[in-house]
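## tool: complex_structure
## caller: assistant
## args:
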Amino acid sequence: MTKIGVNLTKSYAEINEKIKNGDVVVVTAEEMIKIVEEKGIKVAAEEIDVVTTGTFGPMCSSGAFLNFGHSDPPIKFEHLWLNDVHAYHGNAAVDCYIGVTRLADKSPFMYGGGHVIEDLVSGKPIKLRGVSSTTDCYPLGEIDTEFTIDDLNQAILCNPRNAYQRYACAVNSTDKTIYTYMGKLLPNFGNGHFSGAGSLNPICNDPDYEIIGIGTRIFLGGGIGYVIGEGTQHNPTKRYGTLFLKGDLKQMTPEYLRGVHYEKYGTSMFCGVGIPIPILNEGLARKTAIKNDDIITEVIDYGVPRRDKPILKQTNYKELYSGSLEINGKKVKCSSLSSLFYARKIANELKKWIQEGMFFLNPPAERLPTDTIFKPMKVTAELKFVKDLKKEAIICYEDCDIKVVAEKIIKQNMNHIIITNREKLLVGIVTSFDITKAIAEDKNELKDIITKKVITTMDNDPIEIAARKMKINNISALPVIDDNNKVVGIISSEELM
Amino acid sequence: MTIINVTLPFGLISKVNDYSTIINEILKYDIIFNILKFSTSSSGINLLLDIPEEEIATITESLKKNNIIVNKKGRITIDLEKCIDCGACVSLCPTDALSMGGVEENNQLEFIEDKCIGCLLCIDSCPRHAIEENK
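## result:
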């Protein structure tokens, strides 16, 4: 019997006893909201023993350690591929780590490490190719074989960063569709993508890491897993907490481990994570009743390919789940990249496991840090900008004669002539090739040969961004413009060499 | 109004404005219709047209006489075995043909064929290759 007082407390032992006796009261984090609303925190804390959470989304920092056992004669892998996906091999002879974002060598973007893990868990045969430079103790130089998960000694899912506390909503301010790890983003704020499970998200229900710590037993990929530490980039002070998780892949199911690919970005894996929160006190009853309205996040412009992207506004998961948000007075349709349906399924599955006495709760061996921050990369090379390398643009007005343009190309030894109006506002670009073509096709008017759809750059763009623009558009120079479309220079591939 | 997908096969195209063959054929019927999409591909010139329901049969017949291929919509098929109900396609759909329902709902992907205008924006947004264009 639990004594009801001002500060009600329950112990893990008491809750586990109830699980054993089959009279434990378990609800999902969504159900907890209604219970607290109807009965209040005090009664909810008294009546509810465990609140289950769940999330199912793309988690790029995931992968698995595999051990194959030894061949005869034995091999020490120098490189190995699983279904044509290069696995990491910097461990002992026949251990490897297959990461979910690694792309297949022959069909990149279509298949990757995440798909290998899904196939492995599905029981499908996996092709293994390994090569070695050979040693006296490991004389085999090459191996081609096939295995299933049952043939492995260990298959351990080990994910350095999972279950982000929240994520920002990504939109795109540019005039082009961009393909990002936040999916396909249409130009001019055409759509928005967010991720996470809102009120079902594990860390959102234990924001002070009272019960989620090292050793916490959890639902992972349809099997049992453990929190083994804070995740990489764990940033609890900014409410971007993450978890380091591991679990036995052999117990897991492909339903909760799904290989995915994002167009022109790469592969990843959806990973199902569910964490039970024992309601040890009223504080946890209150925290597990968190609503989507209370989970604040930001709308961020992914059109800016920099580390610090502009924050456009604040939002919350209630607005995000409504299917649209307002940006600059425009209604922008938004949707989730992670699955709320499966997040609920996970929370319910975990609830069932506990109710049926198949899953017990344990206190953490160590607490996770609550005060760390996420530092940027230390880069020793100085960042160069377009303004540092640009040259003066050779400009002709739009009503100029083709012959004058041709003369400038020769005289200035420049391949690109920028065409502007009298206010120096960009109108187009003409290259020496365009002039040659004009002569061949007997065209005399500048307006017939000018390229009007010009890819441009700006003074404060890092040169890598300008270089990528040239590369993906297969061009060799970009006019540099200011905010008003006025031409302030040119940068060509020669400067970038 | 009903949406039809009309293709002028590549072999029949000799000049750029040959698509007017399709339009002229429909104009004979003196009806109001919408051109939702104009595109070209290796299969030919493709128009997505929104036409009054009652005229579909006659217009289809008339177009077919000119060797123009008529399909009911440039629709998509969703492989529910592959779909993981994430929602990555939903924000790209301009007509709510793809939806997850509100947060109170089941949140499984629902595809309403009648609302699909065949813009195909969703196809490359699917991380599971679960959306395919009907050929």
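## assistant note: Chain B has two domains: 2-71, 75-135. Chain B touches chain A at residues 84-93, 99-100, 102-103, 106-108, 121, 124-125, 127-129 (CB under 8 Å). Handing back to user.
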